[in-house]
Amino acid sequence: MTVAWRRLDEPDFALLRGWLEQPHVARWWNHESTSEAVHRDFGPAARGEEPSEDFLALLDDRPVGLVQRCRLADYPEYRDDLAPIVDVPAGAMSIDYLIGEPAQTGHGLGTRMIASMVARTWPDHPEATCVVVPVVAANRVSWRALEKAGLRRVGQGPITPDNPADDPLHYVYRVDRPSTS
């Protein structure tokens, strides 16, 4: 089944709130799920006021997950967290992702979502040189999905985790733009 995409919009926020409250999402995203928090944190991108991009992953036109994508140059603090651990070239992008529907976990959907969004990044962002993704080392499911999607581990080091319960150790994954030759 092919993953399709559409931009997250404000009418999707109730769905996103429900996903953020799911235990398998809340454990790693550790994001407030109140209506106010979702509007505050996702509204600017949905309205085009912020340079990040939020996409709903769709299977048969049904939303099942979310991918956030950004240029690291647009978020210097985020880029600066990565720079002591790995080279962050000009044009580097990053993604974050979640599968919202619990029944969809454990079946390879995360890998398909990651691979699909990475493949979409090259035509969407001709200036993109690579996709760099940090993941908490304890989140084995997430970093295994990155590996299965073709990203390779290029470094590890401390980054403040989203969830204060986690150790700061992160693995950093990268995939470079395919050569055109």
UniProtKB/TrEMBL annotation:
Pfam families: Acetyltransf_8. InterPro entries: Acyl_CoA_acyltransferase (IPR016181), Acyltransferase_MbtK/IucB-like (IPR019432). Signal peptide: none annotated. Residues 6-53 form the Acyltransferase MbtK/IucB-like conserved domain. Pathway: Siderophore biosynthesis; mycobactin biosynthesis. Acyltransferase required for the direct transfer of medium- to long-chain fatty acyl moieties from a carrier protein (MbtL) on to the epsilon-amino group of lysine residue in the mycobactin core. This is Lysine N-acyltransferase MbtK. It comes from Protofrankia coriariae.
